[in-house]
Write a structure and sequence with these properties.
- By secondary structure, this protein is of the alpha/beta class.
- It has two domains: 5-68, no CATH class; 77-207, Aspartate Aminotransferase, domain 2 (3-Layer(aba) Sandwich).
- It has seven helices and five strands; from the N terminus they run ααααβαβαβαββ.
- It has helices spanning 27-40, 50-53, 56-66, 79-87, 106-119, 135-146, 169-179; strands spanning 97-101, 122-126, 151-157, 182-186, 205-207.
- The chain has a five-stranded parallel beta sheet with strand order 2-1-3-4-5, sandwiched between helices.
- Strand 1 (97-101), helix 5 and strand 2 form a beta-alpha-beta unit.
- Helix 4 (79-87) runs parallel beside helix 5 (106-119).
- The longest helix is centred in the N-terminal third of the chain and has 14 residues, at 27-40.
- The relative contact order is 0.13.
């Protein structure tokens, strides 16, 4: 890839690497943001159709990125909204549990916890073992072992936001499909930077924050 610095407003001599925290805005994104602010200066010029047409291309491009149909893409204010919308609609039968990871992002953990409280179900947390040389591989293996026929859903990140562990979504998705569990993924840490295919990984809901 050739240098893309001209697409950003970063000062000369700066090499920005911390996109895991927040990515810098492209000049084109900045221009569209300013365009939207100018449009809102005069609400009389905003037509009902404007609430829908502007997001069509965004849905199409995101669908291409994650390999789904644009009609399956919804735009929401935050990951927590998406998590709540998906998880609250998952049914629960007696004896089922939800599964998540240790130190998972609050929008994942607390939404799953609320579902468990509402249904009298257990929230199982698979912790990472830091005393092993291959922590990531072990963590992925134990996630697979923890998913069984009593798992209603698994909610987890594609890449852990605190330690950078990359999860084997294809094998986890296959295991979820095998036992009839739903797989809900927070892709905020990797979508757009790493390839992801929701069909291949059998992901039932992929939810991302757009600011990265």
């Amino acid at each position: 890839m050739n240098c893309q610095k001209h697409l950003f407003q970063l000062p000369d001599g700066i090499h920005y690497l911390n996109c895991a925290y927040m990515s810098p805005l492209l000049k084109s994104v900045e221009e569209r943001g300013i365009e939207g602010m100018r449009l809102k200066r005069n609400p009389l010029s905003i037509k009902p159709v404007d609430f829908f047409t502007g997001v069509v291309s965004v849905r199409q491009k995101f669908a291409q990125m994650v390999h789904c149909d644009p009609a399956q893409v919804a735009v929401m204010p935050a990951v927590s909204y998406g998590m709540n919308s998906v998880i609250r609609n998952i049914p629960c039968r007696k004896g089922q549990h939800a599964l998540t990871l240790s130190e998972e992002f609050p929008s994942c953990y607390y939404t799953a916890q609320r579902w468990c409280n509402d249904h009298g179900a257990e929230l199982k947390v698979v912790a990472r073992r830091d005393d092993l040389p291959q922590k990531g591989r072990d963590w992925n293996d134990r996630i697979l072992e923890a998913i069984n026929c009593d798992t209603a859903f698994v909610v987890m990140a594609s890449v852990h936001w605190m330690n950078g562990t990359k999860f084997d979504l294809e094998n986890i998705g296959a295991r979820c499909m095998e036992v009839g569990a739903k797989l809900i993924v927070d892709g905020s840490q990797s979508v757009g930077a790493l390839p992801i295919d929701v069909k291949r990984a059998n992901i039932d809901a992929l939810i991302c924050a757009a600011y990265k």
